Amino acid sequence: TSAQRHRTYFLLNNKAGPVIVQSKRSGLKMLELLRAFADTADDSDTATAQIAYNKHTQGGIPGALSRASFDSFIEKAESLQLALPADARDGAMRQRVMIETVLLKMANRPFYDLYLVAKLAKKLTSESTLDETLALVRHMLD
Q1: In terms of pTM, does the model score above 0.90?
Q2: Segment 127-136 mean pLDDT
Q3: Cα angle for residues 23, 7, 22 (degrees, 5° grid)
Q4: What integer best gives the mean pLDDT of the chain?
Q5: Interhelix angle 67-82/2-15, nearest 10 degrees
Q6: Which end of the chain has fewer CB atoms surrounding its CB within 10 Å, N or C?
Q7: What pLDDT, on the 0 to 100 scale, is given for residue 15?
Q8: Is-contact 115 140, C-beta < 8 A?
Q9: Of 118 and 6, which is predicted with more confidence?
Q10: What pLDDT is attached to residue 7?
Q11: Could you write out the three-class secondary structure of the chain?
């Protein structure tokens, strides 16, 4: 699954050198070995993945806020989320709060205020989807 691939990618940086060697340049063998490897994640691996996610999201968007920097930030956050076990991932509401926190922290106050006005105009509520929140921010940054 996608979650296994992302978890495996994260763990590769730490423990999976032998898996690469064992695959002997076979993509199918590599996939089989990586899936098996992903299933061996322990609490330490989960903690490491959680720390990486927290560090990324709390660090905010480096440099100026733009559509490209926002998309890059979100893509990495999603990838790091997928490295976590399903029960440890943030739900949609926590992800929306994280996005708003990053906007408040990274953007200038007028941009954040405009975001809040646009959010009200679009009638986005705590029940709105993450995709609706992302679409609104991306529209504002276009």
Answers
A1: no
A2: 90
A3: 10
A4: 83
A5: 90
A6: C
A7: 58
A8: yes
A9: 118
A10: 58
A11: CHHHHHHHHHHHHHHCHHHHHHCCCCHHHHHHHHHHHHCCCCHHHHHHHHHHHHHHHHHCCCCCCCHHHHHHHHHHHHHHHHCCCHHHCCCHHHHHHHHHHHHHHHCCHHHHHHHHHHHHHCCCCCCCCHHHHHHHHHHHHC
2 and 41 Cβ atoms separated by less than 8 Å: no
Q: How far apart are CA 124 and CA 133, in angstroms?
A: 8
Q: Which residues contact 53 (CB under 8 A, 6 or more apart)?
A: 77, 80, 81, 83, 84
Amino acid identity of residue 4, one-letter, is Q
Q: Tokens 């322990």 identify what position? A: 42
Question: pLDDT band at 17, cuts 50/70/90?
Answer: low
Average pLDDT for residues 66-74, to the nearest whole number? Answer: 94
What's the rounded Cα separation, in Å, for the pair 113 and 73? 21
| pLDDT of 77 above 90 | yes
